[in-house]
Amino acid sequence: MSTPPSPSPARWFRALRRTRLGEPCLKTYPLECVDLLRRARVAFQAGRTLKENFRLAQLEAVVRMLEEHECDFVDALGRDLHKPRFETVMSELLLVKNEALYAFSNLKKWMQPQHVERNLSTTLDECLVVNEPLGVVLIAGTWSSPVQMCLVPLVGAIAAGNCAIINPSECTSHTSELLHRLIPLYLDNECFHVILAGASDLPEVVELKFDHVFFTGNREEGNRIAQAAARTLTPVTLILGGKNPCYVDCQCDIATTAQRLAWARFHNAGQSLVAPDYILCHADVKARLVQALKCCLMQFYGPDPRESRSFGRMVNLEIFNRTRDMLWRSGKVAMGGQVIEAEKYIAPTILTDVAESDPIMQQDVFGPVLPVLTVNNEDEAIAFINKQEKPLCVYAYSNNSKVISRLMSETSSGSFCSNDSILQSLMVALPFGGVGASGTGSYHGRYSFDTFSHRKSCLLRGTRFECVTYLRYPPYEDRNLSLMTWASTLSQKSQGWCQIL
Amino acid sequence: MERQVVQRAREAYLSGRTRPLEFRLQQLHALQRMITEKETEISTALKQDINRSQYDTPLLELVGIENEIKLAIEKLAEWAAPRSVERNLLTISDEVYVQPEPLGVVLIIGAWNYPWAVTLQPLVGAIAAGNAAVVKPSELSEYSSLLLRALLPRYLDKDLYPVVTGGVSETQELLRLRFDHVFYTGSSTVGKLVMEAAARHLTPVTLELGGKSPCYIDKNCDIRIACRRITWGKFVNCGQTCIAPDYILCEPCIQGQVVECIRQTLLEFYGADPKCSPDYGRIINQRHFSRVMSLMEGYTPVVGGQSDASQCYIAPTVLKDVPPHSRLMQEEIFGPLLPIVTVSDMDDAIRFINEREKPLAMYIFCSDKKATKRMIEETTSGGVTVNDVMMHYTLSSLPFGGVGQSGMGCYHGKHTFDQLSHHRACLVRSLGMESVNLARYPPQDRRRARRVRMALKSPLIDMSKRTFIWAVTATVIGFGLFITLLVILLIAAGLNCTCWYWRGFYNYF
Lengths: 501, 509
Fold this sequence. Notes:
The complex is a heterodimer of chains A (501) and B (509). By secondary structure, chain A is α/β, with parallel strands linked by helices. Chain A has 2 domains: 30-241 and 446-454, Aldehyde Dehydrogenase, Chain A, domain 1 (3-Layer(aba) Sandwich), CATH 3.40.605; 245-428, Aldehyde Dehydrogenase, Chain A, domain 2. Chain A has 19 helices and 20 strands. In chain A, strand 8 (245-248), helix 10 and strand 9 form a beta-alpha-beta unit. The radius of gyration of chain A is 26 Å and the shape is globular. By secondary structure, chain B is α/β, with parallel strands linked by helices. Chain B has 2 domains: 1-209 and 411-423, Aldehyde Dehydrogenase, Chain A, domain 1; 214-405, Aldehyde Dehydrogenase, Chain A, domain 2. Chain B contains 17 helices and 18 strands. Chain B has helices spanning 2-14, 21-37, 39-50, 56-80, 117-129, 142-155, 168-176, 188-200, 223-235, 252-270, 286-295, 346-355, 369-378, 414-419, 434-437, 446-456, 465-508, and strands spanning 83-84, 95-102, 105-109, 132-136, 181-185, 205-208, 214-217, 247-250, 307-308, 313-314, 317-319, 337-342, 361-365, 383-386, 400-401, 407-408, 410-411, 421-428. The radius of gyration of chain B is 31 Å and the shape is globular. The model of chain B has no long low-confidence stretch (mean pLDDT 89). Strand 20 (453-460) of chain A pairs parallel with strand 14 of chain B, so a sheet runs across the interface.
């Protein structure tokens, strides 16, 4: 396994100086990106990323980077989001490591060309599908899970043999700066670059022409990226946030439900793309659910969550203000509601008596606020969910499997989970992505590899048996056509069709 | 008007009619009946549009559609079933699967070169996946689009699968509305506009665009057969095929031979005057006729070159020694002109292809398997056919699509179904076994963290080589120990029984 080339002394100095003084990183302007893109393209065309050994080495390097700098990541995320150590390690670092190891052990199998089913006319030929890298891809992460959203797609891009330019979100400045410093030390310097472009500059960067753009974020930004990509005919994968509904049925174990819901909603201080956004609770159990949620919160974070080491903070003032406004103008506070601007702290809050027209139901909730709406039965819940845009996830809690299947088949979303939340997005074997307004494309595990590959179909024929092929050439005759129609009916039973052309 | 049509389709889709598999199968059967019953009308329409010969129509278009329908009918239950996936320790007792679901209302924009194939094949996939579809055939193939508009409502559900005809303004009006997927076949310039319009609604697209498909002829292959196949592929439908070999790359030493073989083949196929041959097509309209003629300006063809503007007829034409920077080599020809560009060897050809945009298809005529493999690895394109042209289109198990400027997404067979479905990840858990979950809730500590780390570990079984070797060694040692134990026990017990045995043996004697 070869070590990646060391960066130049000047770059070392700049990196060291930056971290020591703790100053924020300089933004990368689109003009600089042109140069980085050119270098990545040259490296790709030289064929460096095509070899299996290279890809395996890079994947191993990613794992090493996470293991050796675990403390740095915990520290950076702690400073950005006040993320507890447990959450950083579990939901960010472990996830990326799992993906990298999964890709590492399956890479050989994924890289093999796939032989496909043949028909009568191609029985003597080789028909296969070859997986090729696309070229240079752009991966833009989001601030809610900064490490995971950048590095999991990167694992897929590396496994597929592409070069990549990564853009971690500018909101989590410490984490982006850490990635900017670490990646050149572990991964190949020509193939993989980290840029720090702002959200408003991203469409301009996309127009520089990449071979694929992978974007995670909110809907407005996703829209702008999609349009910029359309102008250059670049395929995109968009993972956009939405309002994830959660239905709680009358027949369910309230204590367990409340525990799972509370964990899902309030981890990372509610700043998650896959957390349940609002609850549609059956009227019979609503009071008990709210009570159970209060107990759980007390259990998790103690009487004063501000003192708890397990509770996070808002990432910046903009999000803090937005969440606070939504909180103050919607429904009734059943628990929590305290805010402290200096610390960007919002207490875990449960809102009841929320109306559909309230501000909190109009936008995605990126904070530790859980609105609880009442419905009379699952029909109302399904109707409510279908009125909104298709979300990233739909959750349902019930002991009745019929209710679960109804909820699953009559709604549409990127993914579905019953009696739990978020777990379906952590599994390496399930595709994670959106549909409709929550995005296009999916990733995780094999799906990341497929997202960043082009499946080229190859048909390798021979030049013999021209006597059969001649049937398709002009001048056309009735005799030839009837021969071919006869041959076509012959093989209908076996495979469905034959086309001797 | 378009708005109402789309609204009706959406309402029909939301009513849930398309969900049951029986409905989808019934629609597919109806579509199949339409193709078989109306074959003559379709051939007539195509003859009027593009002067397609009556033998070409079933061969190139209808057989393909029929086969797609038959495949979809046969495999629909399999495709629409939930697909189970690998579980990890945490989810070992849960149901984990991927469920294909319909997207909603799909817009299918067809092209004029194969008006029935490129419009109806995506429609088959849309119906199979349970979507509603708005079909917009190309206005340039007038008779075909009018016929489709008359026929489709008679066989398929009127609300779910409406046909919208019209020109540029109607298409733009349609694109302003919101769909759940847009499937477009056509040119790159319009493809960009379609993608931009779709991006405004965050609609995913499948684009089947064109490109200049190179065709490399190695000097050590059977040139006669190669030229015959290339000639067929290039001049069928008068060169107006998205996957037709656009230009030939060969070494200067065989160029003359190639030209001669093509000339001979053209005589065989279309006779001395292709204008009189019933099997040779015409250019679709005056605009394209002028475009193709202008590409030829300044070059003298070695074969053909005649044209007749009144009939939109261009003779099968071959040009040799075409310089790489000429206009002929800048845009997709989409006509019966075949330029030959000389390259010094295969590496030069690879370099030439890689300098340009990624094409929709690439053709290699070479008898050396290693060299062919190398060429496939070092270049990229939507698809490749070796020692023939266009045949990778006919196999429905191969995904057909472009890459880069030649398009995105793929279809044919199961791939159309997958492209027009949403693959929803489903995790069905139970509310029991909460004790396992306690580890993930705050407040956390090291012990819990270790437990969660183990539960989330993936893959479930460590398939690495080291573990495998340890497992095998351990099994062998264990087995060996077991055998030893058995032998010892046997000897210990057997000292008596063997003695008894031998005693018995002696007694016998």
